[in-house]
Write a structure and sequence with these properties.
Elements: E1 3-14, H1 53-65, E2 69-70, E3 73-74, E4 77-80, E5 90-93, E6 100-101, E7 104-110, E8 117-131, E9 135-137, E10 146-148, E11 155-161, H2 168-184, E12 197-207, E13 217-222, H3 225-244, E14 252-257, E15 262-268, E16 278-279, E17 286-287, H4 290-299, H5 304-315, H6 319-325, H7 329-346, H8 352-374, H9 385-396, H10 402-414, H11 422-429, H12 438-451, H13 453-460, H14 464-477, H15 484-495
Parallel strand pairs: 13-14
Antiparallel strand pairs: 1-11, 1-12, 2-6, 3-17, 4-5, 4-16, 6-8, 7-8, 8-11, 9-10, 12-13, 14-15
Helix pairs in contact: 2-3, 5-6, 7-8, 7-9, 9-10, 10-11, 12-14, 12-15, 13-14, 14-15
Length: 496
């Protein structure tokens, strides 16, 4: 039987505010346990919560960015459950009337080499404000557990999708797009190691073509994209094998064990009625006036969706390239600056679309690899946009080949210096200029052909690999400096 995978994600986005959502206690990470939990966070008798205006504004920014509706009036509710790190015995959240409803996020991903680039618009059900719980500590307590309430009351925006995703790679693409967006908007620092961005994945399977959904299981607290993908892949295999063996999937909450690369049952899955939601009597309705929304809208930066559209329409990039380049605000800015500097350096002599594609390839591949290798962000990149643009201009005007350009780039990275002409200085000082003189290349081609009669004979017998071997010999003789296009043309002319 063929199966279809159905995935929806619930993502807890920690809002980047200085104080908690209902108290003035600090949200700074890394403090000693229980040093940032005030009377309100500890639920002492008689305390009253007060909503944090900055947290509400973060929610408005997000809602506007994803094309959602902002509720003019929304309600905080008490979500009742018992857990040791929940001091009040309930969590203040939103249920029937969330602050953000609807909207969606466009994603692009590559499943494999055969299927190529794919795109989807993932619909959002809602995004609601709530407070975080504390944290249970299980180490260094001589077999007992401790409770740290520093996180209790930390503001969260829970973003819930429709069950629109159909593979683990697709879910990761959505999570990365959402992560990039909330960081772009400045409402979250995006630090997954510190718990600022964590996903719950609802996973089910159904026979291909079936309209109804299968029984879902929720995998909790996935705090890395790699764990998200692996957890979903395992859960899909588990559910399919269980059904094909005659069993049935039980709706439950599961956790992912990265050491064993498996999901395990935690508890039966609760329904909304199990939490006995009711409006919090200590908090009035959250009223958001239209002029507040418009002030937030006016202060929004250019959004990823708008920049993606511009990259596609103006620069002729593919949807996948545009999505990759808008994964972060700094990456989009860097690419924009490279394209502008490259156009100035070329003086209008090169095709704009070709320039943009070359810039995109270098930013997404060579630059990204170097940043990843050294563990630094693009805003700390040692090669400036102007310097990279000048390097690309030297490829396009034939001064150096693409292969030599990578050597020049490595030198620019290893020994950064001021000035957009850094690539020119390295090319000159190391004698890396490409040989484009037809007469000089022709002489070397003749020498290579004379020295490799066997390869000539094999090529004329129909073996294309022999031609590549001859090209390699010419490039070796010129220490990689010969213009590859001219080498190919001259060789084929001589062998013709």
């Amino acid at each position: 039987m063929q199966w279809e995978i159905v995935i929806g994600l619930e993502t807890h986005v920690q809002l980047d505010t200085r104080s908690k959502i209902f108290s003035g206690a600090s949200t700074a990470f890394g403090a000693e346990p229980n040093t940032q939990a005030c009377a309100i966070d500890l639920a002492l008798p008689g305390v009253l919560p007060v909503a944090n205006r900055a947290a509400v504004e973060c929610a408005i920014r997000f809602g506007l960015a994803v094309g959602a509706s902002i509720a003019p009036r929304s309600v905080f509710a008490r979500k009742n459950y018992f857990y040791p790190d929940l001091p009040k015995g309930y969590q203040i959240s939103q249920y029937e009337i969330p602050v953000v409803a609807g909207g969606g996020i466009a994603i692009a991903w590559t499943a494999d080499e055969r299927s190529g680039e794919q795109e989807r618009f993932v619909r959002l059900t809602r995004a609601h404000l709530e407070e975080d719980a504390g944290k249970s500590l299980h180490e260094d307590f001589h077999g007992m557990s401790g409770i740290d309430l520093n996180r209790a009351g930390t503001p969260l925006l829970e973003v819930v999708t429709e069950p629109d995703m159909r593979s683990a790679k697709e879910a990761v693409a959505y999570a990365k797009s959402l992560h990039g967006l909330v960081v772009w908007l400045g409402i979250c620092d995006g630090n997954m190691q510190e718990g600022s961005f964590r996903c719950d994945a609802n996973v089910s399977v159904r026979p291909l073509g079936q309209a109804g959904y299968g029984t879902r299981c929720e995998i909790k607290n996935l705090n890395s994209f790699r764990f998200l993908e692996r957890a979903i892949d395992f859960e899909v295999r588990r559910q399919i094998e269980l059904i094909e063996d005659g069993g049935r999937v039980v709706q439950e909450t599961r956790l992912y064990d990265p050491d064993r690369d498996e999901t395990r049952s935690m508890r039966s899955k609760e329904e909304a009625h199990d939490y006995r939601y009711f409006p919090d009597p200590d908090l009035p309705q959250l009223v958001i006036e239209p002029d507040w929304i418009e002030r937030v809208r006016a202060a929004l930066p250019e959004l990823p969706a708008d920049i993606r559209r511009r990259f596609i329409e103006v620069h002729g990039l593919s949807g996948y390239d545009a999505t990759t380049l808008t994964a972060s605000r700094d990456t989009a800015r860097y690419f924009d600056a490279v394209v502008a500097a490259l156009a100035a350096a070329a003086g209008g002599k090169a095709e704009p679309a070709a320039q943009a594609k070359a810039a995109a390839n270098w930013v997404m591949v060579d630059l990204a690899a170097a940043l990843n290798r050294d563990g630094i962000e693009i805003d700390a990149c040692p090669v400036s946009p102007g310097q990279l643009a000048r390097l690309l201009a030297r490829i396009q005007d034939g001064t150096i080949s693409g292969k030599i350009a990578r050597d020049v780039f490595a030198a620019m990275w290893a020994e950064p210096a001021d000035g957009d002409d850094l690539a020119d200085r390295i090319i000159e000082s190391r004698g890396l200029k490409q040989i484009s003189d037809a007469g000089a290349i022709e002489k070397i081609v003749d020498e290579v052909l004379a020295a490799n009669p066997k390869s000539v004979e094999e090529f004329r017998a129909g073996k294309e690999k022999a031609f590549n071997a001859l090209v390699g010999q010419v490039m070796k003789a010129t220490r990689g400096k010969a213009n590859p296009q001219q080498v190919n043309e001259l060789l084929r002319r001589r062998l013709g």
